[in-house]
Specification:
Low-confidence stretches: 1-16, 29-39, 130-145, 195-243, 591-596
Number of helices: 7
Radius of gyration: 31 Å
Number of strands: 28
């Protein structure tokens, strides 16, 4: 019988920044000095072209997390002939708390922060040195640091779990089996959510009262959006507020290991589980079930000994898993289908406008009926999420070699293949049902040219998103392979006895970033409404998903020394990560739904360097470069010193 209690706390703070590249070859404010117009080209070159920078309205985030884990375990051992059995039961409860606070700061030109033109972004080039703002910004000349946003979230989750397992050992360990079942009861709730914004307040003289009463919505210092009293929660449009995350789920597992030969084992395992995500709604405004997953792995184990010392041990296995449920990779398209927060609404809002114009022009009641139906569809659509099945399979290998008692080598690696299937089924069905009507409106006779073009643009965006959700598509960001190698040597005798040195490397293969695009200058874009020819050229997609990042390698080293002092055992250790201080940036994701890049073109120039224009006066573009977005820098060389004493 075993009763455990564990508790943990941590506190993190930091500044969030987005990093960009300055790709402007020529200074936009010097258009009078463009090449070919009699001005030296050097006068117009952008000196910062190619440099990485941040344009930031600083947001400071504070996170405090703590957890409590209670567990009661009981085991019963019994033997029957050739088998030894162990029955284990566990009852536990885990509680997690998160206290998150975000403060936003911005400089203004002494105007209202409600107007974008008054906000001054702070630019910092990365190669100017490490100069992030670690403390709250202060006033700077005529520009003041003004308090912009304040957000506070208090979250609490708890999980009660009940588990039973039966482990068997047969014929003195030749056969080992495990079967088990577990039931989890999970609840996550946002106990407090406060989000507000003040007016202009200069410098650091800012007063914030995050503990305002729930009904005090007139305080000039803070405009509350909502807090967590039940009436507010019930009426909130936030799905997390309306449906606190609460569910129960039962999962099963089984495993077997057989040693037909003393040094060779065969294993197989099956397991089920679940993933906790924020509660979301489907396209029909019903809550999704929690994502679940299941998987198997099969393989071989090897172990060779010499004089009771393991000389070689290894494991090679094949695994296959599937997860199913709501996912960020299957986010809904409510803002495209229905009214968005932008100047132009979604597809149904535009359809309503076109039908209303047709009714005003013809007085035909069918258009009035269609306008009302489009308005009903528009109002019925709410923010929703969709589902996707993720299928993953691959091979894993773990090897440990001990050529001598002092020398150890560890190698492990994995090759992964994956795909999404049954992706966004509700969204696909909704599009299949209504797209004929939407596409018909792109040629609707009672709509203006701008309305028809807006409809085409929205449909093109929806099409781009859904191309990224075709079944069989590999997951963005998953490396083709990973591998690690580490070796160490311990001095067992002589003057260096107790000294251990080691080093290794981590290898990460290319990651799929998205669809690869290229610029095709031969594309004929037709004529405009006046009959004049448009510029030629457009972006095209390369078949497949071959747009990948580069592979990467990071090395590490360690040195430790065991010694005795004052009759106590001491350990002194130095660890160095990123040993060679690699500063290569690694692309990991991208902006957009079907491409991990921004696409850049430049204006064509004739043999004299003069800009070329199409017949309708629009610039004729040429070339084109796809530039990946979303990257991270490898953590700089980090040296960690550790001293440990045993009393």
């Amino acid at each position: 019988m075993n009763l455990q209690y564990r508790g943990s706390k941590n506190f993190v703070r930091g500044v969030n920044e987005l990093v960009y590249y300055d790709l402007q070859k020529y200074l936009p404010e010097r258009r009078d000095a463009m090449p070919g117009e009699g001005v030296d080209v050097d006068d117009n070159i952008n000196p910062n072209a190619g440099r990485a920078f941040t344009d930031t309205q600083y947001a400071r985030e504070y996170n405090r997390k703590w957890a409590r884990d209670y567990r009661f375990m009981a085991a019963y051992l019994f033997q029957w002939g050739i088998m030894d059995q162990r029955l284990v039961g566990i009852v536990g409860r885990r509680e997690d708390y998160t206290d998150r606070t975000v403060k936003g700061y911005v400089r203004t030109n002494n105007g209202s922060i409600d107007k974008n033109e008054n906000r001054v972004w702070l630019r910092r080039y990365l190669d100017d040195g490490d100069a992030p703002i670690y403390d709250e910004p202060q006033s700077f000349g005529s520009y003041e640091i003004d308090y912009l946003t304040y957000e506070r979230q208090l979250r609490k989750s708890r999980m009660n779990y009940y588990q039973a397992a039966l482990a068997g050992r047969y014929w003195d360990g030749i056969l080992n089996t495990t079967i088990g079942i577990r039931h989890d009861e999970y609840k996550e709730d946002m106990t407090d959510h406060l989000n507000g914004r003040t007016g202009i307040r200069g410098g650091s003289n800012i007063s914030i009262n995050p503990n305002l009463p729930d009904d005090d919505t007139n305080d000039p210092e803070l405009r509350i959006i909502w807090r967590s009293k039940d009436p507010v929660r019930i009426n909130s449009s936030d799905p997390t507020a309306r449906f606190p995350n609460k569910f129960g789920i039962t999962s099963k597992m089984a495993g077997v290991v057989v040693w037909p030969i003393k040094w060779l084992g065969v294993f197989g395992n099956y397991s089920e589980g679940f993933t906790t995500v924020n509660r979301s709604l489907d396209i029909y405004n019903n809550p999704h079930k929690q994502p679940d997953n299941k998987g198997i792995d099969l393989g071989l184990k090897l172990e060779f000994k010499s004089n009771d010392r393991i000389v070689f041990s290894g494991r090679i296995g094949y695994y296959k898993s599937q997860s199913s449920g709501p996912s960020d990779m299957a986010s809904g398209l409510a803002f495209n289908f229905a009214t968005s927060t932008g100047a132009r609404g979604g597809l149904w809002d535009m359809a309503r406008t076109m039908y209303e114009e047709a009714y005003r022009t013809t007085s035909d009641p069918q258009w009035d009926q269609k306008a009302k139906r489009a308005d009903d569809y528009d109002k019925a659509m709410q923010t929703y999420g969709d589902t996707v099945d993720l299928d993953v399979d691959g091979w894993e290998m773990d090897i440990m070699i001990n050529p001598t008692r002092a020398w150890s080598i560890v190698i492990n690696g994995a090759i992964t293949d994956n795909a999404q299937n049954n992706s966004s089924p509700a969204t696909k069905a909704y599009i299949a049902e209504h797209s004929p009507e939407w596409y018909a409106l792109t040629e609707f006779e009672y709509a203006s040219d701008q309305q028809r073009q807006d409809m085409k643009n929205d449909l093109a965006y929806v099409d781009m998103v859904m191309r990224n959700r075709v079944d069989g598509r590999p997951l963005v960001g998953t490396p083709d392979y990973t591998a690690n190698v580490f070796t160490s040597y311990t001095f067992l005798r002589g003057p260096l006895k107790g000294l251990k040195i080691g080093g290794g490397a981590q290898f990460v293969g290319p990651r799929i970033l998205g669809i690869h695009k290229y610029w095709d200058a031969s594309v004929d874009n037709g004529v405009d409404t006046s009959g004049k020819k448009k510029p030629t050229g457009d972006w095209k997609e390369t078949p497949g998903w071959g747009y990948k990042s580069d592979r990467s390698m990071i090395s590490s080293a360690m040195l430790s020394y065991n010694f005795k002092l004052w009759r106590r055992n001491f350990l002194f250790q130095v660890n160095v990560s990123n040993l060679f201080n690699s500063d290569k940036y690694i692309y990991s994701s991208g902006i957009g739904n079907s491409t991990a890049s921004n696409n850049y073109t430049w204006q064509k120039r004739d043999e004299n360097g003069n800009p070329v224009f199409a017949e309708n006066g629009s610039p004729q573009m040429e070339g084109g470069k796809q530039v990946p977005q979303g990257f991270r820098y490898t953590t700089p060389r980090k040296v960690t010193f550790t001293i440990r004493a045993t009393f």
